Amino acid sequence: MDKVRIGTCWLDGCSGCHMSLLDLDEAIVDVLARADIVFGPLVDAQEWPEGTDVAVIEGAVSSQDDLHLARVARERSRIVVALGDCAVTGNVPSMRNGIPVRQLLERIYVEGASEAPGVPTDGVPALLNRAEPLHAAIAVDLHVPGCPPRAEAIGMVLGELIEGRVPDVGSKLRFG
Fold first, then answer.
1. What percentage of the chain carries pLDDT values higher than 70?
2. How far apart are CA 11 and CA 57, in angstroms?
3. Backbone phi, then psi, for 44, in 5-degree steps?
4. H-type alpha helices, the chain
């Protein structure tokens, strides 16, 4: 049997969901016996690979780079999982939505700067007008709430997906 191909990434968020993924501890060995991680922060791949079975995406969609990565992951993956409250609802990143982007950047990088005030542009992705949950940008197959989701919940979701089953997250997971 071929191993399931899993890609992970985080968009606008704190990476706490990936920390919970790592908190699987020894259970990660069971996952890796049946799956290959083909993209993510701990993998050297520079581009989301074609033929990915499961995309696990944390974070809100807040920038042009986030939107591009989300779209590529969706296009090249069979199943997309929104992992954590930022991906599911927009959570903390969406708190900026009431402030126009230009005003937000000026406040932070000009008014709030003690040295070299100026809004950075070199190597900085353009912000979208709003930070949105993942499903506002792409089709999502499974929402896994939590801030972050517990490692056991992530393990259950991955285990079910690896076995070809749709996990029952409604009775096992919660927001916050």
1. 96
2. 7
3. -80, -5
4. 16-22, 27-34, 64-76, 85-89, 101-106, 151-162
Q: Which among 18, 81, 74 is positioned nearest to 50, based on CA atoms?
A: 74
Beta-carbon contacts of residue 31 (< 8 Å; ≥ 6 apart): 24, 155, 158, 159, 162
For residues 152 and 137, give the distance between their C-alpha atoms in angstroms, rounded to a whole number. Answer: 28
Residue with tokens 């991955």: 158
For residue 173, pLDDT over 80 is answered with: no
Tell me the percentage of the chain whose pLDDT exceeds 90. Answer: 82
Kindly give the interhelix angle for 151-162 and 27-34, rounded to the nearest 10 degrees: 20
pLDDT of residue 42: 84
Q: Write the DSSP symbol of residue 110.
A: I
